[in-house]
TrEMBL record:
Chain spans, region Disordered: 1-24
Domain of life: Bacteria
Entry protein name: SAM-dependent methyltransferase
Gene3D superfamilies xref list: Vaccinia Virus protein VP39 (3.40.50.150)
Length: 287
């Protein structure tokens, strides 16, 4: 499915939404949908549906949960208190509303602030699908928090349950790689800043091994990043958090200026921005 181009006329390209709440909304309304094909591909492969009890780690504003629930799965989303704004938007998005199209067949939804241990439901059957859709493998140390979270989630799941891990594909097949390099270039003066790096072939397998999981297949999915204009592109990319350290090392205006320059070759004649990307997912199994 091709991402929808959404127009935002109220801001200029140098004035993205301010504050944590604004950034979370930019993520939910602009950026998160770019990963829709990834969510769908994994769910189709695992035949996610009414028998599924799914726990989503780092669920953010909940689009992946919504898709699973729309397929009839019972879903629990978990995210940390540092992303409360995204989780609040997930609650808005997933609140029961019989009047919404497709709501009648939606599976039950639960959202939890904290870690996997906070999502334990002793009186219900264990989970049988674990997802961690936030792409890993492009920043030094970005798996450090995920490995213990996976280990904790494994304790809540059935033996042999599938676990979905996601990451960027090869840099040469991801047009957005050139834009993400801006973050690295601008943070060279900050020694402890997390920096983007090209994804490695075995990133997902390494995380699975560290979490005690057994790889059981993988796939690649085209996830083009499509934006209605430069304004939407800047706001969407900034909402990922990939440029936060760069903004601290320089300033917001400098980061935006360099993002615009990096996007130059991806702006089409009608003003839309289009960047082909490939993402990879790994299916692993719990012990």
């Amino acid at each position: 499915m091709t991402p929808t181009l959404v127009r935002h006329h109220s801001r200029t390209a140098t004035a993205p939404s301010a504050g944590t709440t604004g950034r979370a909304r930019d993520w939910a309304e602009i950026q998160e949908r770019m990963l829709f094909p990834l969510f769908e591909a994994a769910y189709e492969r695992l035949d996610v549906g009414p028998p599924t009890r799914l726990i989503g780690l780092g669920c953010g504003s909940g689009l992946a949960l919504l898709i699973a629930a729309s397929r009839g799965a019972a879903v629990t989303g978990v995210d940390g208190p540092d992303r409360a704004s995204r989780l609040a938007l997930a609650r808005e998005r997933l609140a029961p509303d019989p009047g919404r199209p497709g709501a009648a067949g939606r599976g039950p939804v639960r959202l939890v602030t904290g870690g996997p241990a906070d999502a334990a439901e002793p009186d219900l059957p264990p989970y049988n699908v674990i997802t961690a859709f936030e792409p890993i493998g492009c920043a030094a140390g970005d798996a450090e928090d995920l490995v213990p979270a996976l280990r904790a989630a494994v304790g809540l799941a059935e033996h042999g349950s599938p676990v979905v891990l996601a990451g960027w594909g090869p840099p040469e097949r991801c047009a957005t790689s050139a834009v993400l390099r801006v973050a690295t270039r601008l943070t060279t003066r900050v020694s402890d800043a997390p920096r983007w790096r090209p994804s490695l072939r075995d990133d997902l397998e390494d995380v699975a091994a560290r979490a005690g999981l057994r790889p059981d297949g993988s796939g690649r999915v085209a996830c083009p990043f499509g934006y209605a204009d430069l304004d939407s592109a800047i706001r969407g990319l900034m909402s990922t958090g990939a440029f936060d350290a760069a903004a601290r090392a320089t300033d917001q205006a400098q980061v935006e200026k360099e993002i615009v320059e990096a996007l130059h070759g991806h702006v089409r004649r009608d003003g839309t921005v289009w960047m082909p990307n490939v993402f990879r997912y790994l299916i692993a199994r719990t012990p």
